[in-house]
Structures are given as structure tokens and as C-alpha cells.
């Protein structure tokens, strides 16, 4: 992993490379993904079945081959080890409780001219959730995507997940049952995004697509956006840690590795004002790597995508971390919450010595579908509002149009829109 000092002569150059860390260069896969989408738009199920057979390596001749039966979900849930079932239920309940508190409510008020104004929030009719398979199965992603949609009031939820060889991970099936999923398919990659965006005879067309995925999934979401809404364009996972010597260096080392084990191109950053602490974390990373089941993946990530930065003070730590705008940010200092206002850009913020990022991944409650690659500068975590639409409410009384009609007509006339002006004038004449 890189070891940098903010006082180094070439620091700005090296740090700018970290800021531009995104691996979402879609140009290489764009032609392939465009072809996949075009085929499904043109040929529907026929193209979809061919693509699944090609990419997921199992024969598909009819829709029954890709439909996930609800009985299979129920059986998987009932077969869970009791302790795992309890943990899954606890995670479900905590995620639901948190998201219920974030659901927007309709509101109205009357102004001084007796005009009623406000907003109405309505769930989309149908949501599509993409749950990745990738290098591991992620039932937690099913919970994090399905529960906000359920809380929003979405009536129909469609799930797509890759099933190499035609097999779906049992824990993912169990999570589907727990969330009450009724419509799910064994479809992965760009094919899944295209099928949900445009619909086929088998897969319903949805209004919004959420969920993370690889570069093919991200590219497909970007291409279908506008025909369907999406949550965000997600890239490789990442963690940033601001810590001083009040933290345990071994804890911080393991926290960095918790993202590195996701993917060879995941990123991990530590920024600290204490060099001795930085060196200690570096040593613990080397030791802890040897204990990981996914050591080759984590090693590649730490070798190519990780950095430790020694800053002059905590103030500079926050300045640099805000430029990185990381997906997950840990603040491992005493009185960590006192630094809340210093954070400008982060997907999720983990305060204190007993808040490893993994708590947010699984069981704390807030969503773990987060902006990556610096997009925390303008994106928010997935939430209930991603599955809802806001409509403006306007009700003008006779008193209201008498007060505001003439200035409104003047604005319409200035824009040359005669019918706009007349629509007000005829009411003032009555």
C-alpha cells in the first residue's frame, strides 16, 4: 500500500490520483452492453434466454428455468441454522425500523392569499432490485434494497440475481422469503438491467432499478436511465478512516481490510496525524492479511488501491478526506461525534472506536447501498425516497387568483405565451 506524507513535494500529484480513483471507465464495455440491451429490446425473452445461457452457464429454454419459486425461498428460510435465522431477522427489523423513520410525509400550508401549497409523496408502481452474485453472495443487499421499497409502499417488487449454473445462494433465497418477495428471476449482469428496464414476456417492466453490480451492470444502468429511474452508478467498494493514536491500530488495519476483501479494485484509505500510529497500522495489515479467507483479493486491493497518509493535524485529515468523498468513513478518535460538522462528503459516517464499518453493512439500520468513487459529493445513500415520487400541490382560491393573477399574466406575456396569459384572464373576467 502507498505510504504518503502531506508534506511530500510530490504529494499533490499522488493524492490527485487517489481522488480520481474511479474504475468506472465504461468505454471498453459500452459496445457489449449496448448490444445486450438492444437485443432484449428487440427480441425480448428469446434474446434474454440466449444471454443467460451464454453468461450464466445454464440452459434456458422457457421462463420456468429462470423463475425463482417462492416455495424455494420459504424452504431456504426454514432450513437456516437457528442462530443465522435470528441474526437475519434482527437485521431485517433494524433496517426496517430505521427506514420507517425516514419515510417522507405529505405536507401542505396556506399562504397569506389563501393559496394551498404542498407536496404529495407517492410510491412507484413497480421496483426492480438487482442483487449481485459476484465473488460472494450478498443477502444483506437484498434486505437493504427491498426494505426501503416495502416501507415506501411499492406494490410490486421484482428481483434479479445472477445464478451461475442455475443455482441461487440459499441465504439469499431466505432473505427473499423474509422480505416477502414474490417475483424473482435468475438473471445477472446487463441482461437483468435491460429486462427490468424494458420488460419482456416474462420479466415485468419496472419504474426504478436499484442495487449495485459490476462494470456491466453500472454501464447498463447508465444507458437505461431516462427510460427508467435508477438509484446511482455504483463502483468498487471503498473505506476511509480518520484516526489518531487513541485508536487501536489492529482494529483499524482490520477495518481497512474489510473493504479490501470485497474486490481487487476496492479502495482503502487511512489518514492520521500520527506517523507512529500509521506505521503500526501498516504492520497489522500485513499480519492480518494472512488470516483472511479471501487473502488474494484483499492483497491485490491493498497493493494497488490502498494508501496511508500522514497529515500535519486532524484538520488536514478532514480536508483531505472530504476531497476523497469516500463511500464509508470511519472517525476513530476520542469524542468522534464532535467532528461531525467537519465531514462534508461521505456516504455513511461511522463515529467512535466501537463502530466498525461492518456494523453498517449488516445490522445497524442505515442503508449500505452508498455512493462510491467520489460521488458522495452529490449522491446520497439508497433510501425510501428512491422508491417514491414527489408531486407538487397547488390550489388557488378566488382570493388568491385576484391577488396573483395580474403579475402572473405579466410574466406570461413577457415570455410570449398568449394562452398562458388568457387562462388567467378569463378567470379574472368571471
TrEMBL record:
It holds the Pfam family Histidinol_dh. It catalyses: L-histidinol + 2 NAD(+) + H2O = L-histidine + 2 NADH + 3 H(+). The keyword Zinc applies. Its EC number is 1.1.1.23. Its cofactor is Zn(2+). Zn(2+) binds at residues 259, 262, 361, 420. Belongs to the histidinol dehydrogenase family. This is Histidinol dehydrogenase. It comes from Campylobacter concisus.
